[in-house]
Structures are given as structure tokens and as C-alpha cells.
Amino acid sequence: MIVYCAGPIRGDQTYLKSYLEIIQYVENLGITALSEMNSKFTSSIPLTDKQIYTRDVKWIDGSDAMVAEVSGASLGVGFEIAYALFVKKIPVLALYNESVQKISSMISGCTNPNLTVKSYKDDDSLRKEVKAFLLKHKK
After folding, report:
1. Which residues contact 93 (CB under 8 A, 6 or more apart)?
2. Which residues hold substrate (predicted)?
């Protein structure tokens, strides 16, 4: 199984630790976690915006599912989620920290059956949600 892990890189990085935990946990489960924050896939040379876009779309195209950290604002993560849901039609788990008062209405109001939105309070509950989602959608 291949999972694209989405999280803010240039946007609000308040929850970067949680995003990194998602990547590490997916890898610990023996599942490929595609993300530029995964040291296995880090480029040794800086990429242009176009190269990053092309790479990320290719990664989503080759993924069976997506797990996204959506606690902080990120246009890129929103784009990636929409692409996964409406173009690739793969399941997406959108996770947010329960301390966040509101996440984007474009996520919380979306009725696409492939979207699962869950809150977490700590690393343990985050891992629990990720594991349940991946078990449900395992290929």
C-alpha cells in the first residue's frame, strides 16, 4: 500500500510535529509514506515550484490513500485533498488537533464519501485514527 501524506510545508507549521508523526507512523506500519518530509524521498537538490507540483501530483496519482494534517491553514494541502478526492477518487483521512476551534469549511463541510475527518488530542489518538483508516482501506 502507498499513502500520500499531506501537511503544511510553507503554510501554518504549528502542527508540523503531528505531520511528521503521521509520516513516521505510516512507515512504521510497513506502508510507504510519500512526502517531501520523509527523508527517504528528500531531494538532494532544490526543486522549483513546478518540479514540486509535478512530483506531488505524480505521488498522489500513484497512491492508494491520503492522510492529511489539516489543523493549520495550507492552500497546498487543500489542493492536494481536492485532487485526491475528485480526480483520483481515493480515500482521504483529514486529521486535526482537537484544540483547533475550526478547520476549513471546505473540509468539514465536504460530503464526499471518500473523505473521513477526525480529530486527535495527542500522538496516541492520532496513531489510533491513522491505523483504523489504513486498516479499513488496506489494499
Report:
1. 65, 66, 67, 68, 116, 118, 129, 130, 133
2. 19, 80, 104-106
Domain boundaries, the chain: 2-137
**pLDDT of 74 higher than 60:** yes
Hunting for cell 505521488 — which residue is that? 59
Please tell me the pTM assigned to this model.
0.92
Q: If 0-12 CB within 10 Å is exposed, 13-18 middle and 19+ buried, where does residue 96 land?
A: buried
Question: Which residues belong to the annotated binding site?
Answer: 19, 80, 104-106
Amino acid identity of 109?
G
83 within 8 A of 68, measured Cβ to Cβ = no
CA 39 from centroid of its chain's CA atoms: 16
Convert the pLDDT of each residue in 4-14 to its tens digit: 999 987 767 77
C-alpha cell at 86: 475528485
CA distance linking residue 124 with residue 96, whole number of Å = 14
Whole-angstrom distance, CA of residue 74 vs CA of residue 44: 25
- Cα–Cα distance for residue pair 85/101, rounded to 1 Å: 24
2-137 topology per CATH: Rossmann fold (3.40.50)
Q: Show the cell assigned to 77.
A: 494541502
